[in-house]
Amino acid sequence: MQSLRIAAIAVLAAASLAAAAAASAQVTVTDPWVRGTVTGQKATGAFMQLKSPADTALVAAASPVAKIVEVHEMKMEGGMMKMNAVDRLALPAGKAVDLKPGGYHVMLMDLVKPLKDGDTVPLQLTFEDKAGKKQTVEVKAVVRPLAASGSPPATKQ
Ligand SMILES: [Cu+2]
Questions:
Q1: In the chain, N or C: fewer CB atoms in 10 Å?
Q2: How many separate domains does the chain show?
Q3: 52 CA distance to ligand 1 middle (Å)
């Protein structure tokens, strides 16, 4: 019976760990969406609002629809809109951070298929808190039409 008891204790320990994790910094993801693509288009952006109760950072993203997923920021550089990959997108405690056209976004590159209006795109977002503890949040982003409001300047293909 010894092994059964150990198993029961392990289950209890796992349950309390899970409860502790849920009680700590759970990042809220609001209104995730992805801009739809046209045939032949190999990249697009995902947008959402992130909010964390404690200081944390978005450190990675992944999706089955894209072979390469990066966190990007867009900004004006010498009169041109440029996109740069960022290693960490800081989420200060309690402050909503917008990922939106023309600013931060999750870049989906090397798309495996076109993304049509109304499709659902799974996104895995990995956050890291100040202690270095990682948390992955899965969201389903809805695809909105290419011309969804707030479009950044069109990039030449
Ligand atoms: Cu980008």
A1: N
A2: 1
A3: 23
